Amino acid sequence: MKHLFSFIMCAAIAGALVSCDRKGIDALESADILVPDGYHIQEFRAACSDTRTSRDDNGNTVWASDDGITVFWECGNCPADCISGGDSGTATFRAIIPDGETIIFASYPEGRHAELSVATDEIEVEIESEQPGSFSAGNIAVAKADGNMLSFFNVNAFLCFEIPGEDISKVVAESVSGAALAGKQVVSFAGENPVLGAQSDPVSSITMSVDGSGRYYMSILSGVQHASGLLLKYYKGDDISGAYYLDKDITTVRNKIYAFGEFEPDGNYYATLEGNGNKSGLNWDNAMDVEKLRALLTIPADEAVLAAKVAALTGATIHIGAGISDLTAFADIDIFVAKFGVTFIFASNTPESGDH
Question: In this structure, what DSSP letter does residue 352 have?
Fold first, then answer.
């Protein structure tokens, strides 16, 4: 298969687009490749304990054999394919770069747009507001070359969902407080270690497409507080089919996966006395505890939070189990029943906290 290398060169050098074809590693080894004058082939070794691109069945992250990165220099960039080390913790990539160019950056995944500032030792990437839901497409990482070594630095955090049905077409996440879920993120390499810098062009919602049942990952900005939680809406076709309100103060942490378990598209919440898992209430494995249930069934003063609860709880069913027998002490319970149409099912045989 032929691959097209494209080089965006600054006007002072060429003012034009230079490209070349190659037929995989065998062609490179046999010199069956056009290397433009003033350029050379260079291999980069990529490794880092927490910034790889795919997840295996045990949840470990690894480079994949078909991975690609984009290599940047001050006036241009070039795609680079994995030529060895796929399905492991390290990988070798091959690119064509200008002779004498010593300041090299890279980004993953290949083709992701990035803005480079050599003067300030910074690279800017974007977490998009529309995503395909795959781990590899959303696992944004950047690096600055130290010779031929690229130590990648993860930029984003993840929301992770298990979609059990075939009929969900997309999931939309909204920050109830209006904080940024998507937008542009600067990473600075000016110090000894890379650090996250300024964020810009904030977007408070992300749409993730869904294609059948499976595990889906939503890439989000890290270092952002969502003090009023998140509203998750799910769609069947183009029509909204339901919503969940995650009543949790979340400050997102770089390189962390927030796993919400199975996302059941049925308007159900689950609660036990002490809760389970991440206590999101989305299923028995992650049942909310009684205090989170009390907070959920409280009319808030904040209008944005109230709107999220109306969207998520209207017509909802809350399954109550394991030690909760009476809800009459909840001050606003009658409002949720009478105005929101919330129903409660008390289940006698439910998972106890710590059973999972």
Answer: P
